[in-house]
Amino acid sequence: MYYFALLLTPERQLDADEGAREMQAYQEFHARAAAAIRAGDALAPAAAGVRISGGPDHPTVTDGPFAEGAEVAGGYYVFEADNLDEALELARQIPAAGYGAIEVWPIVHWMAPTVPVGSDWMALLLEPADRVNIPDSPEWKASVRQHEQFGATAGDRILGGAPLHPPNTATTVKVRDGQAVFTDGPFAEGAEVANGFYLLRTADRDEAVKLASMIPASVIELRQLAGIAGL
């Protein structure tokens, strides 16, 4: 099975030594978890991101920063694991779990990139928690048709992506004082929850915003990938 791990962290200013230690911690994690990591990267600062609401017919674009809480999406992974327990153990080892939180979501189906992903774009799809469709329901099948239409329009500008299972299947992982804490559900009790994501390749930011505005979702958080993971 595939699992989406969303890293939610405070945005921090690290000096050179702190940055080197952080990079070393991630390199060590990648070495340990290499057999399970299928994708992943850090995200550029939220201030450079875009939030798109209103749906494809009436999109409203808001430049970042736009997070209301102390933590923002700072990166992601896609893991392949035999079960949720294995995925949670991987999430526990992510360095960000020690100062932020990791949301782990089961993936409905993973469309893996067929080319290397660099400084491209992640479009994180958000929905009100009470409006998330259950896989294989009539509402779900209707939304699939809308995404198929988007896929036909976007073509090879879509590098990959995945829909996620509903929020009652998510688990939040934190590590404090060396102890892992697992909590059912998403990290924040906000109005919106993750519902899926796309990885997009465009010529520039303006094209990325235009393309993301076509995605059939209540809200899209568009963030540029840092292109540093080498995954």
Can you tell me the CATH class?
Alpha Beta
Largest sheet: 6 strands, antiparallel
For this structure, the CATH topology is: Alpha-Beta Plaits
Q: Quote the beta fraction.
A: 25-35%
Average residue-wise pLDDT: 93
Q: Uncertain runs with pLDDT below 50, 5 residues or more?
A: none
Using only C-alpha atoms, the radius of gyration works out to 17 Å
Give, in order, the helices and strands.
EHEEEEHEEHEEEEHE
Kindly state the percentage of residues in helix.
10-25%
Structural class: alpha+beta
Give the end-to-end Cα distance, rounded to a whole number of Å.
Answer: 19 Å
| CATH architecture title | 2-Layer Sandwich
- Number of separate domains: 1
Tally of helical segments:
4
How many strand segments? Answer: 12
Shape: globular
Instruction: Let me know the CATH homologous superfamily.
Output: Dimeric alpha+beta barrel
